[in-house]
Amino acid sequence: QVQLVESGGGLVQPGGSLRLSCAASGSIFMFYVMGWYRQAPGKQRELVAAFTRGGSTNIADSVKGRFTISRDNAKNTVYLQMNSLKPEDTAVYYCNARAPLRDLQDYWGQGTQVTVSS
Q1: How far, in Å, CA of 98 to CA of 108, rounded?
Q2: Is the dihedral of CA 5, 98, 18, 57 positive or negative?
Q3: 10 and 81 Cβ atoms separated by less than 8 Å
Q4: Which residues pair with 95 in a beta bridge?
Q5: 89, 116 contact by CB (below 8 A)
Q6: Quick one: which of 26, 45, 62, 106 could link to 39 by a disulfide (CB 3.0–4.6 Å)?
Q7: Average pLDDT over residues 48-63
């Protein structure tokens, strides 16, 4: 059974926008902490934006003011709205669900490619 289903990646020109979606199963969405990571060519995977267990958000400095994480509880979906995209945003973006307990596994989406290029 697929736990996380990502969509919305693609090719966009610099300055453009994309919205990534991550649909989770109900149990995952209800109890796990959702976030987005990315891995660019030649770089380690890094946090982009995530909710915290306290209900706030963590946003990477490199995307502050441009990216927004949000959720739609009715659809069990978390979004990453990406505006003013730059070539350096090019990466594979991964949806992440952090387990509420240490002995439970985290879940990762399959990854969706975002390419920012003229």
Answers
A1: 9
A2: positive
A3: no
A4: 36
A5: yes
A6: 45
A7: 94
Cα–Cα distance measured from residue 77 to residue 15, given in angstroms and rounded to the nearest whole number: 25
- Mean predicted confidence (pLDDT) in 21-47: 95
The Cα–Cα gap between 30 and 45 comes to: 25
Structure tokens at 7: 């969509």
Question: Is the Cβ–Cβ distance between 56 and 45 less than 8 Å?
Answer: no
Q: Provide the H-helix boundaries in 1-108.
A: 26-31
- High-pLDDT (> 90) share of the chain, %: 92
Calculate mean pLDDT across residues 5-31.
Answer: 95
Residue 112: alpha-carbon gap to chain centroid: 9
Q: Which helix (H) or strand (E) holds 112?
A: strand 112-116
Coil, helix or strand at residue 89? helix
